[in-house]
């Protein structure tokens, strides 16, 4: 940052003075001190100016040294960046590779089932996502992990740190550092701390400002903690105000300086009083830092170097090979064994790094002590024996025993033996003698279980679990108790298995029982059919006739239709797969028939009026049919049936007077009573007056006889209400209502006639379906109630019946927890059906319930048995690789086939690869493939047929054959189509959206060639019908593409118009209004020339040729109108222009709007020739008026402001005056031809040296930096040579 004083020149008594003003530095930017600035420009003298030529128009020449005097020399140290920048940086690859090894003993616990290869891979993927580094992981036989990390240096450090945190055991250590050193450890913005954490792969927690603790906590691996501690202590040591010194001692001699258990180091520090910081063994640094008093540091350094020199002379080395697995016994816990060897023998033990594969251990020390140390090392390495026993993973829990009983026994007999269960092994470590005894003990246990125990794994659909387990685990517990086996359900790695462990015979029997249960469950199917609940009643039919027909055809299928209270559209089907699919198809067909013809109404019309209904040429009747989408049938021409006419002529309307207070009781609850009267009386219409009208007249309309009957009942009810009104309720099961009503209502009509009471049954809208309402006189109601209760009691009486069912069909009825039996019971009045127990071979099925219900249940059971015996199965052979295509997404295609042909299709297990003789691909089990497909299938006929190729179709024989042909038609084909390469991008769409939609819509697969081939051939594969549809769609796309391309060519017509730049702004209009309107009106694109275009007059019009020509004519018309306008230029002082324009142009805009003219002020180029010129454009009269207003405004402003300014004395010319071209000669306003001239400038010197390049602004000589110091601060206001500061 430059800091200097700005030099200014001021002439006083022909003497030149230079003053300086200080510049304050605020936030790294320069700010001039706020002293009072002069209100008008201060003239600057022109020192050392000379003239050439005459005195009138002479151009003065100025000395560069006078105008820009030299600043004080910059005494600051030269920037080091310049020197460093001259050195060429070494170019290296940004991608680096590092290998990281995590030994088994430092690895996090792997006992959790979730921590395995999958979990490790997931953690590495997460680290890759966070850091950007590529990670490869390898697990060794000894459970160690090796990581290969690739990436940039920063990515490597971040990934290494996260890997160690995720896979290595984390230790923690506290380091004491003075609080005043925290800022050094943190660095600017915490950057140094983050870098330290990244390089050491640790997490460092420094106490906050409010925390008085002086402990810094380091968490991470042992090596990382040691390295981080070394760096922190090193940073802290550098900050001690006391003297600090460093000495370099090879790492191999550090153990002798530190001594066993740091004895030598502590002794040195006590003797000298200095603090000696020796890098930990894991940190590969030779430098030892000594801090403290100067004398103490010198003494300590001398002693350290003396130890180093002595050991350098005395030490020898010997190398020994020890298995890598034994190294940790030589190292000991936290290196205690190495320290013990050093204490006993005086020899240092050097171990290879943990991530190294070397097995060489180096002993360093006096020659006489090496032999003893070698003996101790071998003793330590062989002090622990490690043995692995092969044991399958499933036996481990038996080896451990119940509640760890075997392990407790092993611990008592073989103490100090460590047992680890690995994948398929058990690892033992400890004293050799105890390990041998433990191996013998565990081997005996393992052998016993391997001989007598086994396990089996069964893959089961999760939906079957609840059936296999049973209620409250009854099924599984029974198998466990009877067979002494252990049954577990496993859900891992996307597989659903049942695992059976225990004695071999028990496992075998349990597997057979479970497999039998699974086979039963697999043959069942449940399906939901969505049918509008408004159609449920129509599906059931009168007295359940329609739904009974469906159930009779599919006796093994349970059809559950929701009740009106359930308020749902879902009808549930459950039963054998083949029957469920057939029933589903029949239901949908029934629904379609009901929807197509769901309502019929007869309208009575006199025969003589038929011609008016039909209209001329059938126009009226056709219009009604088209508008209402209904079918209207009229009687034939020769029909002599006069029933319609007679009925119409018999329609009458009568009024009955009934007091309004009885209306509610006559209408009944929910209108039940009045509805029953209208129904009994032939559907007459009875209308009560509105409550607001206060009328007592009830209108009855209908046939004369029915009206009279209804009138009599209404009057009778009114009279009854006058005498008395009584209501009672009786409850009866809904299935018994039909028995109470009787055939065609005979039973209920008999009760009504005998008692005179009105009996109302619940409707579909009622929530309580069991309440029967009785209305009438009290005596009548009581009599009717007694008779109803007697009939209800008879219905509740239970009888017993039997039906014969072949035992082979019993399983079908009792399967799925007796779902079919429950359904039959619900349909037949709640009868109880009992099948004989398994193994009795009895064919008698007992039915208990009402007599009619028993008969209905017997018929239903016989229908189901008959349907079961009418099934047949055929086979069709299709290669297994095409099964997925034939099935379609989620089995959609095969479901369509099963629904259409009312068959059941079963695909084989894809793992069944056994060959089948007598069949060929594309054929069937009956004809050996004679009906196979031609073409491709002839080639495939030589392929051997396997079990997984055979598809079985069950149903009636003719439907099975049709379904077989439909499956063969689903075998895909591939066809090549020619599509222009330019259209491929459109077919693919953004991110492949269009092609995915195309493939989904037409159910085909589209393969486009790579873009670099620019091929026109694309491949479409799918069923023949779908491929044909896709071909037609592509041909339509090609046709549209060609049409669009031709249209684009027509729209690309370009027309150029030559228009004077003066009119361009008018063509654009305010905010682009004019040009946008032209574009919209003519549907073209109009482009005006850009600033760098060579011809600024050309306007381009792009679009259809006719539209472009129309737009051109419109532009020329506008230009022609503009050219006819009057134009006048007036002179107004340039200093007044801003006043006339006004704030944000408000003043001049008002003048333009008031006088409908256009006013232009001179541009920067025009101002050089005549800055005072103002142009007014418009109609001549409007221009004159605007001219008077502008001149008046200029005159007023000049009189009020410019003339009142105080006269100023003649001022010397300023440099700014010369820069603007004003001269000082005698000619008024004469401009200098040569402009401002300066002598001896640096660039002039270069020109003199015939070097015409631009001045080098980076030159320290031509453009020196401001000095840090300067002249004394000036107190008077100053001005710059470049003019006054605004």
TrEMBL record:
<feature type="domain" description="K Homology">
    <location>
        <begin position="452"/>
        <end position="519"/>
    </location>
</feature>
<dbReference type="Pfam" id="PF00013">
    <property type="entry name" value="KH_1"/>
</dbReference>
<feature type="domain" description="K Homology">
    <location>
        <begin position="1051"/>
        <end position="1120"/>
    </location>
</feature>
<feature type="compositionally biased region" description="Polar residues">
    <location>
        <begin position="1249"/>
        <end position="1261"/>
    </location>
</feature>
<keyword id="KW-0694">RNA-binding</keyword>
<feature type="region of interest" description="Disordered">
    <location>
        <begin position="1"/>
        <end position="116"/>
    </location>
</feature>
<feature type="domain" description="K Homology">
    <location>
        <begin position="654"/>
        <end position="719"/>
    </location>
</feature>
<feature type="compositionally biased region" description="Acidic residues">
    <location>
        <begin position="928"/>
        <end position="941"/>
    </location>
</feature>
<feature type="compositionally biased region" description="Polar residues">
    <location>
        <begin position="11"/>
        <end position="20"/>
    </location>
</feature>
<dbReference type="InterPro" id="IPR004087">
    <property type="entry name" value="KH_dom"/>
</dbReference>
<feature type="compositionally biased region" description="Gly residues">
    <location>
        <begin position="1222"/>
        <end position="1232"/>
    </location>
</feature>
<keyword id="KW-0963">Cytoplasm</keyword>
<feature type="domain" description="K Homology">
    <location>
        <begin position="383"/>
        <end position="447"/>
    </location>
</feature>
<feature type="compositionally biased region" description="Low complexity">
    <location>
        <begin position="76"/>
        <end position="89"/>
    </location>
</feature>
<feature type="domain" description="K Homology">
    <location>
        <begin position="797"/>
        <end position="866"/>
    </location>
</feature>
<feature type="compositionally biased region" description="Polar residues">
    <location>
        <begin position="28"/>
        <end position="37"/>
    </location>
</feature>
<feature type="domain" description="K Homology">
    <location>
        <begin position="973"/>
        <end position="1039"/>
    </location>
</feature>
<protein>
    <recommendedName>
        <fullName>K Homology domain-containing protein</fullName>
    </recommendedName>
</protein>
<feature type="domain" description="K Homology">
    <location>
        <begin position="169"/>
        <end position="237"/>
    </location>
</feature>
<keyword id="KW-0677">Repeat</keyword>
<feature type="domain" description="K Homology">
    <location>
        <begin position="523"/>
        <end position="592"/>
    </location>
</feature>
<feature type="domain" description="K Homology">
    <location>
        <begin position="241"/>
        <end position="309"/>
    </location>
</feature>
<feature type="compositionally biased region" description="Basic and acidic residues">
    <location>
        <begin position="103"/>
        <end position="116"/>
    </location>
</feature>
<dbReference type="GO" id="GO:0003729">
    <property type="term" value="F:mRNA binding"/>
</dbReference>
<feature type="domain" description="K Homology">
    <location>
        <begin position="597"/>
        <end position="653"/>
    </location>
</feature>
<dbReference type="InterPro" id="IPR036612">
    <property type="entry name" value="KH_dom_type_1_sf"/>
</dbReference>
<feature type="domain" description="K Homology">
    <location>
        <begin position="314"/>
        <end position="382"/>
    </location>
</feature>
<feature type="region of interest" description="Disordered">
    <location>
        <begin position="910"/>
        <end position="943"/>
    </location>
</feature>
<dbReference type="GO" id="GO:0010468">
    <property type="term" value="P:regulation of gene expression"/>
</dbReference>
<dbReference type="InterPro" id="IPR057778">
    <property type="entry name" value="KH_Vigilin_N"/>
</dbReference>
<dbReference type="Pfam" id="PF24668">
    <property type="entry name" value="KH_Vigilin"/>
</dbReference>
<feature type="region of interest" description="Disordered">
    <location>
        <begin position="1206"/>
        <end position="1286"/>
    </location>
</feature>
<feature type="domain" description="K Homology">
    <location>
        <begin position="1124"/>
        <end position="1195"/>
    </location>
</feature>
<feature type="domain" description="K Homology">
    <location>
        <begin position="870"/>
        <end position="972"/>
    </location>
</feature>
<dbReference type="InterPro" id="IPR004088">
    <property type="entry name" value="KH_dom_type_1"/>
</dbReference>
<feature type="compositionally biased region" description="Low complexity">
    <location>
        <begin position="38"/>
        <end position="61"/>
    </location>
</feature>
<feature type="domain" description="K Homology">
    <location>
        <begin position="724"/>
        <end position="793"/>
    </location>
</feature>
């Amino acid at each position: 940052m430059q800091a200097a004083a700005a030099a200014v020149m001021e002439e006083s008594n022909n003497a030149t003075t230079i003053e300086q003003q200080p510049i304050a530095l605020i936030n790294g930017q320069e700010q001039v001190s706020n002293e009072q600035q002069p209100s008008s420009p201060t003239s600057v003298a022109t020192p050392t100016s000379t003239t050439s030529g005459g005195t009138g128009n002479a151009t003065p020449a100025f000395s560069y040294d006078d105008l820009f005097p030299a600043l004080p020399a910059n005494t600051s140290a030269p920037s080091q960046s310049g020197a460093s920048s001259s050195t060429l940086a070494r170019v290296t690859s940004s991608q680096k590779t590092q290998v990281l090894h995590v030994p088994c003993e430092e690895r996090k616990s792997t006992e959790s089932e979730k921590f395995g290869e999958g979990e490790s891979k997931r953690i590495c993927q997460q680290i890759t996502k966070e850091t950007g580094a590529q990670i490869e992981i390898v697990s060794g036989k000894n459970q160690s992990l090796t990581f290969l990390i690739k990436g940039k240096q920063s990515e490597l450090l971040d990934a290494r740190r996260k890997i160690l945190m995720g896979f290595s055991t984390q230790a923690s250590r506290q380091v004491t550092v003075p609080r005043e050193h925290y800022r050094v450890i943190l660095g600017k913005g915490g950057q140094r701390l983050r870098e330290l954490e990244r390089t050491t792969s640790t997490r460092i927690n420094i106490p906050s400002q409010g925390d008085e603790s002086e402990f810094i906590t380091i968490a991470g691996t042992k090596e990382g903690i040691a390295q981080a501690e070394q760096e922190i202590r090193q940073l802290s040591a550098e900050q001690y105000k006391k003297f600090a010194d460093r000495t370099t001692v090879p790492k191999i001699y550090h153990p002798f300086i530190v001594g066993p258990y740091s004895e030598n180091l502590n002794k040195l520090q006590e003797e000298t009083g200095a603090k000696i910081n020796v890098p930990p063994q894991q940190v590969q640094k030779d430098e030892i830092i000594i801090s403290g008093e100067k004398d103490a540091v010198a003494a300590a350094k001398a002693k350290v170097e003396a130890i180093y020199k002595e050991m350098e002379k005395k030490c020898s080395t010997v190398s020994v090979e020890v298995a890598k697995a034994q190294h940790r016994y030589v190292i000991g816990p936290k290196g205690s064994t190495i320290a013990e060897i050093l204490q006993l023998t005086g020899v240092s033990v050097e171990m290879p790094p943990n991530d190294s594969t070397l097995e060489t251990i180096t002993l360093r020390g006096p020659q006489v002590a090496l032999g003893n140390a070698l003996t101790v090392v071998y003793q330590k390495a062989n002090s622990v024996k490690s043995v692995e026993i092969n044991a399958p993973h499933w036996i481990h829990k038996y080896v451990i025993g119940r509640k760890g009983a075997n392990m407790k026994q092993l611990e008592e007999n073989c103490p100090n033996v460590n047992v680890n269960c690995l994948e398929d092994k058990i690892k033992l470590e400890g004293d050799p003698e105890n390990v041998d005894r433990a191996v013998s003990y565990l081997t005996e246990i393992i052998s016993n279980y391997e001989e007598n125990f086994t396990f089996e794994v069964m893959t089961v659909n999760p939906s079957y679990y609840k059936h296999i387990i049973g209620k409250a685990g009854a099924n599984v517990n029974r198998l466990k108790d009877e067979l002494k086996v252990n049954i577990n359900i496993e859900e891992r790695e996307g597989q659903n298995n049942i695992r059976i462990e225990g004695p071999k015979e028990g496992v075998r029997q349990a597997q057979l029982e479970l497999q039998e249960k699974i086979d039963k469950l697999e043959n069942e199917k449940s399906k939901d059919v969505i049918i509008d609940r408004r159609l449920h009643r129509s599906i059931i039919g009168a007295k359940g006739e329609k739904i009974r027909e469906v159930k009779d055809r599919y006796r093994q299928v349970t059809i559950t239709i929701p009740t009106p209270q359930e308020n749902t559209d879902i009808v549930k089907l459950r039963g054998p797969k083949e029957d469920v699919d057939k029933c589903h198809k029949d239901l949908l067909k029934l629904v379609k028939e009901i929807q197509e013809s769901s309502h019929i109404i007869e309208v009575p019309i006199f025969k003589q009026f038929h011609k008016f209904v039909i209209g001329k040429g059938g126009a009226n009747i056709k219009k009604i049919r088209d508008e209402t989408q209904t079918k209207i049938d009229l009687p034939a021409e020769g029909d002599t049936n006069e029933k319609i006419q007679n009925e119409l002529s018999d329609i009458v309307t009568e009024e009955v007077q009934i007091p309004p207070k009885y209306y509610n009781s006559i209408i009944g609850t929910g209108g039940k009573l009045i509805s029953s009267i209208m129904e009994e009386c032939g559907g007459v219409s009875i209308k009560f007056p509105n409550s607001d009208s206060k009328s007592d007249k009830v209108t009855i309309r209908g046939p004369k006889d029915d009206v009279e009957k209804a009138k009599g009942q209404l009057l009778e009810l009114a009279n009854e209400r006058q005498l008395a009104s009584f209501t009672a309720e009786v409850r009866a099961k809904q299935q018994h209502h039909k028995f109470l009503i009787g055939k065609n209502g005979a039973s209920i009509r008999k009760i009504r006639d005998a008692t005179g009471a009105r009996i109302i049954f619940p409707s579909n809208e009622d929530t309580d379906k069991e309440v029967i309402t009785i209305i009438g006189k009290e005596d009548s109601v009581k009599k009717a109630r007694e008779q109803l209760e007697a009939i209800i009691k008879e219905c509740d009486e239970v009888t017993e019946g039997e039906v014969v069912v072949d035992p082979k069909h019993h399983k079908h009825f009792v399967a799925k927890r007796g779902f079919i039996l429950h359904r039959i019971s619900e349909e037949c009045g709640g009868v109880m059906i009992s099948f004989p127990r398994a193994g009795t071979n009895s064919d008698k099925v007992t039915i208990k319930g009402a007599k009619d219900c028993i008969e209905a249940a017997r018929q239903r059971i016989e229908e189901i048995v008959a349907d079961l015996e009418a099934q047949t199965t055929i086979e069709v052979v299709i290669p297994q690789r095409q099964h997925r295509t034939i099935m379609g997404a989620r089995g959609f295609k095969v479901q369509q086939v099963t629904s259409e042909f009312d068959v059941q299709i079963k695909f084989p297990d894809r793992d069944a690869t056994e060959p089948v003789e007598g069949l060929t691909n594309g054929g069937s089990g009956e004809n050996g493939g004679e009906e196979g497909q031609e073409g491709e299938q002839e080639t495939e006929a030589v392929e051997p047929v396997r079990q997984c190729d055979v598809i079985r179709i069950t149903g009636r024989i003719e439907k099975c054959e049709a379904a077989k042909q439909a499956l063969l038609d689903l075998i895909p084909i591939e066809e090549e189509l020619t599509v222009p390469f330019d259209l491929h991008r459109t077919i693919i769409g953004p991110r492949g959206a269009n092609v995915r939609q195309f493939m989904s819509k037409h159910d085909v697969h589209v393969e486009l060639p790579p873009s670099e081939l620019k091929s026109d051939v694309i491949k479409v594969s799918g069923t023949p019908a779908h491929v044909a549809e896709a071909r037609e769609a592509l041909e339509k796309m090609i046709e549209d593409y060609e049409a669009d391309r031709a249209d684009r060519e027509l729209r690309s017509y370009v027309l150029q118009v030559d228009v004077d730049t003066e009119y361009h702004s008018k063509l654009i209009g305010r905010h682009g209004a004019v040009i946008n309107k032209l574009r919209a009106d003519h549907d073209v694109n109009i482009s005006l020339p850009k600033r760098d275009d060579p011809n600024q007059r050309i306007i381009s019009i792009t679009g259809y040729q006719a539209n472009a020509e129309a737009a051109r004519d419109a532009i020329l018309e506008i230009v022609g109108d503009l050219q006819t306008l009057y134009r006048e230029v007036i002179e107004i002082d340039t200093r007044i222009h801003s006043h006339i324009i006004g704030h944000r142009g408000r003043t001049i805009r008002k003048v333009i709007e008031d006088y409908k003219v256009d006013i232009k002020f001179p541009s920067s180029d025009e101002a050089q020739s005549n800055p005072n010129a103002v142009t007014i454009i418009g109609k001549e009269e409007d221009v004159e008026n605007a001219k008077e207003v502008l001149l008046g405004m200029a005159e007023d402003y000049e009189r009020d402001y410019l003339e009142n300014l105080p006269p100023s004395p003649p001022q010397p010319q300023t440099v700014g005056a010369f820069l603007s071209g004003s001269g000082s000669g005698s000619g008024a306003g004469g401009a200098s031809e040569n402009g401002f001239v300066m002598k001896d400038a640096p660039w002039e010197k270069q020109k003199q040296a015939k070097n015409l390049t631009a001045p080098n602004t980076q030159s320290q000589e031509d453009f020196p930096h401001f000095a840090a110091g300067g002249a004394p601060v000036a107190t008077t206001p100053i001005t710059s040579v470049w003019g006054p500061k605004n």
